[in-house]
Write a structure and sequence with these properties.
The chain is about 30% helix and about 30% strand. The chain is α+β, with helices and mostly antiparallel strands and about 550 residues long. The protein has two domains: about 200 residues, no CATH class; about 300 residues, monomeric porin ompg (Porin). The chain has a twelve-stranded antiparallel barrel with strand order 1-2-3-6-7-8-9-10-11-14-15-16.
Length: about 550
């Protein structure tokens, strides 16, 4: 008897594609094309059996053979499609596990495996006033992440920055009610989702501790003996100002569990898992026991046989009436709805029995790690940053990020970026180019990916060249240094020096269970953006990665 565990069956049979079962038709070259991408789990679960029946019926029709269920050439496929028998129970488990059991297993495993990924960028880039990252890595949060960082690596003034990151596709699925946790079982919404939404990540950073000021007109005096009238005053503004927005497009990310490369690696893992999962297939008997307690299984054997024979005759007639498989799918769906009633799906014993087939999380978890190791390799990301630092001109940064993962040997990342001033006054003595930079980082998990608490070591180097010193905006109303003269219209001054900025950083990231990450870094630089002289600084942060926790937002329990 053929048996398989639900988590493995789903991963093998469900692949992304059209949301409509009518988009594909039966072909001799690809006989499963008409059902492989169907959005209904039961059709996908029994797709190979449906394809076998459609192929046999098409052959019999071409040869003018018997086109009834009595044809022995149809017997094997029809027996597999009998969802009232033990032979068809594997398909039932596969089709219902996504709803009843598999969701919690996948969410838990993805959360664990996601923590082992060295490519995710959760904090802001090196130029933020509060950051723990010297180098931007190629990946981003899959669903949502919140990072709080304190420190600075290329800036003069430390800050506290909150960064909220999200993936456009996962956010879209969350808002539209689709499954944000889906991976190899995702039903694709087409080219726009695959090529635009899924690779696009967006983040926003806010300075929580840096305060600005604004100028307001005043009249008279509140106190004091000086007759000088005060006409303007600089009023401090509140914290929490937006300091930057980042958009990232992942042209190539082998860590993405929805990518074709990962699906191929996962399919290989599924094949290798057939032997170890054989020990837990006895749980399928418990599923059949619950099914047998419900209508129509509580009917007499004669009634049950009549039901099955009628269904088999309808399946053969449907396949004979339309060689594309469209009618066969519709007929099988009708049979499924007749047997798998709402009473069965709502029976807690049925959910518990299906769940037992997915209880061996360790096997599934290790297989996912192995598939990830097989899939990873080169990663390539384009990044755009809009920066609005305190009392400095806004800039637009364009960055290319390349990474290569060496599996057990860690990951190497390279950055190349150019920064351009958003606007340059007509009388300015500097051009549009702010700086150019290249940097590199080596990341490696040093405690093992299978640990509940992991530690990741990062060593980074950064080189930046500025053709001119940094520009400082002095706001209107500020008193000129050494005088009592206010600057009515504001001004700009060069600060610091032009030339090369060198920075090195060593960082240890503690990765706890549940998506919590705590980066602790120490850096050295020959200068900063505004000040000359060597600087040694410390950076610390905390982030929470909500990936694979869509239930927190949708209210789902699994």
């Amino acid at each position: 008897m053929k048996k398989c565990v639900a988590i493995i069956c789903i991963a093998l049979s469900a692949t992304p594609g059209s949301a409509s079962s009518t988009a594909s038709v039966w072909t001799e070259k690809d006989p499963e094309a008409f059902c492989r991408h169907d959005p209904r789990q039961e059709i996908v679960a029994y797709c190979d059996d449906l394809a076998q029946l459609q192929t046999a019926v098409n052959a019999a029709k071409a040869a003018s053979e018997n086109l009834t269920s009595a044809n022995s050439n149809f017997a094997d496929a029809l027996n597999k499609l009998d969802i009232t028998s033990p032979r068809g129970v594997d398909g039932i488990i596969t089709a219902t596990a996504a709803t009843l059991a598999l969701k919690s297993v996948i969410a838990s495993v993805l959360k664990d495996v996601g923590q082992s990924r060295p490519d995710q960028q959760l904090s802001p880039g090196a130029t933020a006033s509060g950051t723990t990252s010297l180098v931007s890595t190629a990946g981003s949060a899959e669903l949502l992440s919140l990072a709080l960082d304190t420190g600075a690596v290329t800036q003069s003034v430390n800050g506290t920055t909150a960064t909220l990151s999200t993936n456009a596709d996962q956010l879209f699925r969350l808002v539209t009610g689709s499954d944000p946790d889906c991976t190899v079982t995702c039903n694709s919404l087409g080219w726009f989702e695959n090529r635009v939404l899924n690779p696009l990540n967006i983040s926003a950073s806010l300075d929580l501790s840096q305060q600005g000021s604004t100028t307001t007109a005043t009249s008279g005096q509140a106190s004091g003996t000086s007759p000088t009238q005060v006409t303007q005053a600089a009023i401090p503004t509140g914290a929490g100002k937006l300091s930057g927005i980042t958009a990232r497009y992942e042209a190539l990310n082998r860590f993405d569990p929805r990518s074709d490369k990962f699906k191929s690696a996962w399919a290989q893992q599924v094949t290798s898992l057939k032997k170890p999962v054989a020990a837990i297939t006895a749980d399928t008997d418990a599923v059949m026991a619950v099914l047998s307690s419900h209508v129509p299984f509580s009917d007499s054997d004669a009634d049950k046989t009549a039901l099955v024979r009628a269904a088999q005759s309808k399946l053969v007639r449907a396949a004979a009436s339309d060689g594309t498989g469209k009618n066969l799918v519709a007929s099988f769906e009708s049979f499924w709805q007749e047997v798998i009633t709402s009473d069965i799906m709502s029976d807690p014993k049925f959910a518990s029995a299906v769940s037992k087939t997915a209880q061996d999380k360790a096997i599934y978890r290790q297989a996912w790690f192995n598939a990830l190791d097989q899939a990873v390799g080169n990663l390539f990301t384009f990044e755009y940053d809009y920066n609005h630092p305190l009392n400095q001109p806004e800039t637009h940064d364009l960055k290319l990020i390349f990474g290569h993962n060496f599996q057990t040997m860690g990951m190497l990342t390279f950055n190349g970026a150019v920064s351009i001033y958003g606007s340059v006054p007509a009388e300015a003595k500097y051009g549009s180019l702010h700086y150019g930079q290249i940097s590199s980082e080596y990341d490696r998990t040093i405690t093992g990916k299978d640990k509940s608490v992991q530690t990741q070591l990062s060593l980074a180097g950064y080189w930046q060249y500025q053709p001119n010193p940094s520009v400082l905006n002095i706001p209107a109303g500020t008193v000129a240094p050494g005088t009592s003269i206010p600057l009515p219209n504001g001004t700009q001054e060069f600060v610091g020096t032009a030339g090369s900025l060198w920075v090195t950083q060593a960082k240890l990231t503690i990765k706890g269970s549940g998506g919590i990450n705590i980066p602790i870094g120490v850096s050295w630089s020959n200068k900063t953006d505004l000040l000359q002289g060597n600087k040694v600084g410390a950076q610390v942060g905390i982030s929470y990665n909500f990936s694979s926790l869509g239930g927190l937002f949708t209210g789902g329990g699994q």
